[in-house]
């Protein structure tokens, strides 16, 4: 969970194309395992042992991580992938956007964040954008990058439309809508988010998970997870395989 406190004002210019973090904080596998531990009881009670569907975790949001996963890699390949959330939100043009339908059969990266974020959100979008530009043109056109706001009260379609090109790439899809729907969709992918809270001093505290989930074009399942310390080089190395639906 990322805890971020920002002033209730326009975000600073987030264009930081080549910035990368010097090191990964204790390995993404630990974070993924923590998600499993935190949600396992809820899933067991809510779904029951016989209700699991093969090939996806559905509403259970359980990220099963192989004990043999390589902790030196940025990517964590999930033994039990996430099912893509059934979200219908509003895009930067003010049009309804059915996440499942519009990204079906396409390599897709999904991230939950907000435009007033001072560091992690713009850095993540920038790193993905820089890595994407290293792909062949045809592959660039295949890749879908979806940014779902965790602060829909301030992140209107218009503000998302202005922020995404500066933070990342004009082709990135920005979505906003009802917070409860967004929160439910995030939970289905093992990502916790809380409503943005305005403090007495006018600042806003926003808490959200900083994972990027990669969905396969062949199965439409979220099978790879990345943490906030993933660098441009990490994404550049993995994107060609993700676009094919292969394990990085």
Summarize it.
The protein is of the alpha+beta class. Helices cover 31% and strands 22% of the residues.
Task: Write structural notes for this entry.
This protein is α+β, with helices and mostly antiparallel strands. The model is unreliable at 3-60 (pLDDT under 50). It contains seven helices and twelve strands. Strands 2-3-12-11-6-7-8 form a seven-stranded mixed beta sheet, with helices on both faces.
Q: Helical segment tally? A: 7
Strand order of the main beta sheet, please?
2-3-12-11-6-7-8
Overall 3D form: globular
Average pLDDT works out at 80
Q: How much of the polypeptide forms β-strand, as a percent range?
A: 15-25%
Structural class of the secondary elements?
alpha+beta
Unreliable runs, pLDDT <50, ≥5 residues? 3-60
């Amino acid at each position: 969970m990322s805890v971020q406190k920002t002033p209730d004002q326009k975000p600073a210019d987030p264009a930081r194309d080549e910035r990368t973090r010097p090191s990964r904080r204790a390995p993404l596998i630990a974070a993924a395992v923590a998600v499993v531990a935190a949600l396992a009881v809820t899933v067991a009670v809510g779904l029951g042992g016989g209700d699991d569907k093969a090939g996806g975790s559905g509403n259970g949001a359980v990220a099963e991580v192989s004990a043999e996963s390589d902790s030196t890699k940025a990517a964590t390949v999930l033994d039990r992938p996430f099912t893509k959330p059934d979200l219908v939100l509003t895009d930067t043009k003010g049009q309804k956007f059915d996440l499942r339908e519009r990204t079906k059969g396409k390599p897709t990266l999904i991230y939950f964040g907000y435009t007033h974020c001072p560091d992690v959100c713009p850095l993540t979008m920038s790193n993905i954008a820089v890595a994407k530009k290293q792909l062949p043109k045809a592959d660039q056109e295949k890749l879908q990058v979806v940014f779902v706001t965790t602060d829909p009260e301030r992140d209107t379609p218009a503000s998302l439309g202005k922020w995404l090109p500066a933070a990342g790439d004009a082709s990135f899809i920005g979505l906003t809508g009802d917070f409860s729907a967004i929160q439910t969709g995030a939970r289905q992918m093992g990502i916790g988010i809380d409503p943005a809270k305005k403090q007495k001093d006018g600042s806003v505290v926003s808490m959200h998970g900083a994972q990027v989930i990669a969905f396969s074009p062949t199965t439409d399942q979220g099978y790879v997870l990345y943490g906030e310390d993933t660098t441009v080089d990490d994404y550049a190395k993995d994107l060609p395989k993700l676009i094919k639906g292969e394990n990085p």
